[in-house]
Specification:
Layout (H helix, E strand, L loop, with lengths): L2 H11 L15 E4 L4 E10 L11 H19 L2 E12 L4 H17 L4 E9 L4 E9 L17 E5 L12 H4 L4 H10 L4 E5 L3 H12 L2 E5 L7 H10 L3 H7 L5 E6 L4 H4 L12 E8 L4 E4 L5 E3 L9
Parallel strand pairs: 3-4, 8-11
Antiparallel strand pairs: 1-2, 2-5, 3-5, 6-9, 6-10, 7-9, 8-10, 11-12
Helix pairs in contact: 2-3, 2-5, 7-8
The structure holds magnesium ion (MG).
Length: 311
């Protein structure tokens, strides 16, 4: 089975509920409470799917499991309030494994002063699974940033650099820091119409944002911020580095849409980084609901199919 097929079946199956302004299909769900709103997320990190115990230390796996979940908090521009951790532990592992995974979870959560408040453990005959659930809240007066608010004419922007995340044993996919602070800073300075974190690669993730917003996009291939790791990978496998930037996945960078009028705040001068992180305008939101990739000569190419699907 394919994860995406199940997810689209699911979003069409679960009915709307008056207490759930944002349900299945965004980076986090938004649930109405008496006093306001809570944001919720749950994320699995599975041995041999998202991580590999033969290559990664249990501690690093704990770090990644938490950071994957916190990256979705960044995607909504919310503040993580607490985490719960569920461990499915292999019967043949020792207690050190569990302790080390948890120590990694704690270290990653501590970076954002986010308490771990509970969870569950089970022992079974299968491989390690670390499941992390996050509770988040928005700063007062600020709405959650969903995938669904992009408007025709908006500029599309990504943080950091894309591609090559899986290249090294200790690659970016193990060592990234979720863009929580950047998201908060952006939300305080500009009107973020739509935002998501890039987990499966721009090729797969941008169509999700466009579908949620019922818009299309034109992306300038030569503008893509290509990571040095993607360049090295391209030199090795002779595929264009830009293709790696589109397809590799696990970038955990932010993709967002803002009005043109907010661009001077993001790009006050050439080379300036007012938010302390490289930001790159990669394209423009279009009314027509399809995605187009432009080359250096402004020739249009169909959007590349695929991206990174965890198997
Ligand atoms: Mg996400």
């Amino acid at each position: 089975m394919r994860e995406n097929d199940f997810l689209s079946w699911l979003s069409g199956t679960v009915p709307a509920h008056p207490a759930v302004p944002v349900g299945i299909g965004d980076d986090m769900a938004v649930v109405r409470l008496g006093a306001g709103e809570a944001l919720l997320k749950i994320d699995q990190c599975m041995d041999r799917v998202h991580v590999d115990l033969r290559k990664h230390t249990p501690r690093d796996i704990g770090v990644k499991a938490v950071n994957r979940c916190l990256s979705d908090c960044a995607a909504m521009a919310c503040r993580p309030v607490s985490l719960m951790i569920s461990l499915a532990l292999p019967r043949d592992g020792d207690e050190t494994l569990a302790r080390e995974v948890f120590a990694g979870c704690q270290a990653a959560a501590a970076v954002f002063n986010c308490p771990i408040v509970g969870g569950d453990t089970g022992i079974w005959d299968q491989r390690l699974v670390v499941t992390v659930a996050a509770l988040g809240e928005m700063p007062k007066g600020r709405p959650p940033v969903c995938r669904s608010g992009a408007r025709p004419g908006d500029a599309l922007i990504v943080s950091g650099e894309l591609g090559g995340s899986l290249l090294w044993r200790q690659g970016h996919h193990m060592t990234f820091v979720p863009r929580i602070e950047l998201a908060q800073a952006l939300a305080s300075k500009v009107a973020l119409h739509a935002m998501m974190d890039l987990s499966d690669g721009l090729a797969m993730d941008l169509p999700r944002l466009c579908a949620a917003s019922k818009v299309g996009a034109m992306v300038a291939g030569p503008q893509l911020p290509i990571s040095p790791a993607a360049e090295r990978l391209a030199a090795r496998d002779h595929l264009p580095a830009g293709l790696h930037a589109l397809m590799d996945g696990e970038d955990y960078e932010l993709l967002f849409a803002v009005a043109e009028s907010d661009l001077p705040t993001l790009f006050p001068a050439p080379g300036a980084e007012p938010f302390g992180v490289r930001l790159t305008r990669i394209g423009t939101v279009s009314e027509e609901q399809n995605l187009v990739l432009l080359d250096a000569n402004d020739q249009q190419h169909p959007w590349p199919q695929g991206g990174y699907e965890h198997q």
